[in-house]
Design a protein that fits this description.
Distance between the termini: 41 Å
Strand content: 15-25%
Shape: elongated
Strand order of the largest sheet: 1-2-3-4
Radius of gyration: 23 Å
Number of helices: 5
CATH topology of the largest domain: PH-domain like
Number of domains: 2
CATH class of the largest domain: Mainly Beta
Order of helices and strands: HEHHEEEEHEEH
Largest sheet: 4 strands, antiparallel
CATH architecture of the largest domain: Roll
């Protein structure tokens, strides 16, 4: 089951996560928009073509005295280059896939992967939130409907940012509605 955006209450009952409270309901599970990964894949596809162009145009610019040594050296350097591209692609795909934001009825969880062995998990309860802002930067983001949500807490600097997520305006509304429901519950308890 894809967990990019889940708003169907029946689907959210099937999903759990470590540390979930007993009566906590998942409202949304968000990931970055797929266009972010598509842009990276396009960049890698262009970088794959670089050795091919270098192989054909380098002999036109420089005189190569020994073609056999040049071919072996070029093959070695090209293999290292493609190995580097493969590792870089692996890191980017892992980073894309493991970044996730969970919006529940009581809090917002941000799980961001920074490299292979560094993960940052931030939890913001609705009672800590002071301001929620959605930003859709530019024409591409407007067309593909992705952007950022900034959540300001009582802390000195911004506590949480949901980066490049799908439908940021609608997500902000869901967070705002959950915030108001949680505030009403705390007012009733007083």
């Amino acid at each position: 089951m894809s967990i990019t955006t889940i708003v169907n209450p029946e689907e959210t009952k099937k999903i759990t996560f470590p540390g979930q409270y007993e009566n906590e309901q998942i409202l949304l599970v968000k990931r970055r928009h797929w266009i972010v990964l598509a842009g990276f894949i396009l960049m890698i596809a262009l970088l794959i073509l670089v050795p091919i162009f270098v192989y054909f145009f380098l002999p036109l610019v420089f005189e190569i005295p020994n073609a056999e040594i040049f071919n072996k050296l070029f093959l070695f350097i090209t293999c290292l280059y493609y190995l580097f591209l493969s590792v870089m692609s692996f890191f980017m795909i892992i980073d894309y896939y493991l970044d996730i934001w969970i919006i529940t009825s009581q809090r917002i969880l941000s799980v961001e992967q920074k490299g292979l062995f560094h993960r940052i998990v931030v939890e913001v309860r609705y009672s800590q939130i002071q301001d929620i802002t959605s930003v859709v930067p530019g024409l591409v983001a407007t067309y593909f409907q992705f952007g950022n949500i900034n959540i300001q807490t009582a802390a000195e600097k911004e506590r949480m940012m949901l980066k490049q997520i799908t439908h940021p305006v609608e997500t902000r509304r869901v967070i705002s509605d959950a915030y108001h429901k949680e505030m009403e519950k705390t007012e009733e308890k007083k």
